[in-house]
Amino acid sequence: MGSAEFAVAAPHPVLRPLVTRYIGYSQRHNTLSVHRGLPSRHLTLVVGLGQPVRVLAMPKHGEAPGSFAGLVGGMHTAPALIRQDLVQAGMQLELHPLGAYALLGVTAAELSGYVVDLADLGSPGLARLPERLASAPDWPRRFAVLDAVLLDQLDERRAPAPEIGWAWDRLIDAGGTLRVDALAREVGWSRRHFGERFRREVGLTPKQAGRVLRFERAGTVLRTRARVSLAELAAECGYHDQAHLTNEWRALAGCSPGTWIAEELPFLQYDPGERGEESAS
């Protein structure tokens, strides 16, 4: 197995409600040729350092593969397949979907299912981001570049409806297990109105978001717990049974849980719960 370095940083305090964290990575002698970009609660912004990011299969059926100096991936319910080289480095940002419009100038609904070139978002600052990051000499200065660019991009007038922010947080806290009609009642809207507003702001329907959050929770348990049976995992994460978990995993990851554990888990060396200012391993 090859070697990997990860550097993790929290963004500027003003950005933290919209950006969960920055992750820098540098890998050598990488033996995993294709990485699955899995559905999660975040929009993902990725910039390659020295080489493009090559997406072999898009999460939206029928979209052509692409090669990008920098990209943003919308909320999705299928994996993106990403080519990995023997030596590669880059940066990944985890963006809150409700902050997409404020930071990127497009809504999460417009990005949903798509992988978009940063240069196509209409912002000179985002278009120049790959070049600026590649020219920075170390992780701290790259993190500083990200802070500067995103603070310059930020338009705080572009705020989501507070009811949707509250419902999204409730769904996250429950690991995707709340019923849609219950959420709508708590917000005080009809189920239909709530579902449509939620989709426009988050980029997924409430039901799709629940699926993704349960799946993400299961992935976190597998990353952080040494031993857990799939039956236990299914019960803990809100699935009906192990078969339900396996079927959902195949749909959202493109493979069975066992295949993902064997192929990808050994390469995920950074702590997915890490929220420190900066760390490297």
Verbal overview:
40% of the residues lie in helices and 20% in strands. Helix 4 packs antiparallel against helix 5. A seven-stranded antiparallel beta sheet has the order 10-7-4-9-2-1-11, with helices on one face. A four-stranded antiparallel beta sheet has the order 3-8-5-6, with no helix packed on it. The chain is an alpha+beta fold. The protein has two domains: 155 residues, Jelly Rolls (Sandwich), CATH 2.60.120; 104 residues, Arc Repressor Mutant, subunit A, CATH 1.10.10.60. The protein has twelve helices and eleven strands.
SSE topology:
Blueprint: E1 3-9, E2 19-28, E3 34-37, E4 43-48, E5 53-57, E6 66-68, E7 70-73, E8 80-83, E9 88-95, H1 100-104, H2 108-111, E10 115-117, H3 124-127, H4 129-135, H5 139-153, H6 162-173, H7 180-187, H8 191-202, H9 206-224, H10 230-236, H11 242-253, H12 257-263, E11 278-280
Antiparallel strand pairs: 1-2, 1-11, 2-9, 3-8, 4-7, 4-9, 5-6, 5-8, 7-10
One letter per element, helices H and strands E, the order comes to: EEEEEEEEEHHEHHHHHHHHHHE
The number of distinct β-strands equals 11
Number of separate helices:
12
- Count of domains: 2
Beta content comes to: 15-25%
Q: Order of strands across the widest beta sheet?
A: 10-7-4-9-2-1-11
Low-confidence sequence ranges? 269-281
Q: Percent helix among the residues?
A: 25-40%
The CATH superfamily of the largest domain is known as Jelly Rolls
- Gyration radius, rounded: 18 Å
Secondary-structure class: alpha+beta
Outline: globular
Protein name: AraC family transcriptional regulator
Keywords: DNA-binding, Transcription, Transcription regulation
Pfam family, one: HTH_18
Domain HTH araC/xylS-type: 178-263
